[in-house]
What we know:
It is a single chain. The protein is α/β, with parallel strands linked by helices. It folds into 2 domains: 3-182, Glucose-6-phosphate isomerase like protein, domain 1 (Rossmann fold, 3-Layer(aba) Sandwich), CATH 3.40.50; 203-319, CBS-domain. It is 46% helix and 15% strand. It has helices at 3-31, 34-44, 57-71, 81-84, 111-119, 134-138, 160-180, 184-190, 194-199, 203-206, 222-232, 251-256, 266-269, 283-293, 314-319, and strands at 50-54, 76-78, 97-101, 124-128, 141-144, 215-216, 237-241, 244-249, 271-272, 276-277, 297-301, 308-313. It has a 5-stranded parallel β-sheet, with helices on both faces. The longest helix has 29 residues, at 3-31. The model has no long low-confidence stretch (mean pLDDT 90).
Amino acid sequence: MTETADKQDTLSVGRHVIAQEAAALGLLADSLDDSFAAAVDLLLGAKGRVIVSGMGKSGHIARKIAATLASTGTPAHFVHPAEASHGDLGMMAAGDVTLVLSNSGETPELADIIAYTRRFQIPMVGVAGKKNSTLLRQSDIALLLPDAPEACDSGIVPTTSTTMTLALGDALAIALMERRDFTPENFRQFHPGGKLGARLSKVADLMHAGAAMPLVKPDTPMGEALLVISQKGFGVAGVIDNGNLVGIITDGDLRRHLDGLMQCSAREVMTKNPQTVAPDSLAEEALATMNQRKITTLFVREQGLDTPCGILHIHDCLRAGVG
């Protein structure tokens, strides 16, 4: 067989697997019924945590589902069924809800977890691919996966089944997000690091406030204004009258008034009605505004107020990883 033929066969296998799993996801979407809504209600009403468990490949999926739930407003953690039998059952308590995964529904390592939930009346949502399996018969709410073949020819490697289980977990997590009115700001509380956390940073998180702001009064001589601009290091000065921001002095303003600059007051040099941003705006939005207007700083003020509460420099955004 030629190298080209090998490559084509490999591509054919890859496409076949993805197409088969995509078809299974379509079946899963069509199969959702009132049991899914009931499961969301049960998870939403948990006074404690959602305990997610599964063995083998289902265990790997369970860990991911627990992480997704926890990061989207539903307190959750993974309990390994083998460890549960050796003390970790103590991690489950009244007020918790369990989400237990098993494609066959007959995984022996899950027996102790199932028995524990029944003994102490801890509600259980079961996810399996066999309708009359032990797991689904014992569950308070049973979520049955559609009968879809695994993507491998032998049918023994968990592929389609784990993909459907993962997608079902995502569907539960997003439905819970919607029910909780979970916002991007809430999301950032659980994701403060990395690129995602930076993109969700607010202006208030990055701005400089108080004495750090370069502020002068309208009648301030430009000689003094230049000292403020130099000392504060933002390359600009805000002009305030009775505490209200009425103008800004930028590098462009200085160039336009070079002739006789030192005989001018701040009022005579400033640009009136400067562009500002609200402290609760996303820093990414502020950066976009600066790029669009070709400026490097924005004064910050609360919506509907004229008093500045901070200043944001483009370098603050870039240092934080915004943009």
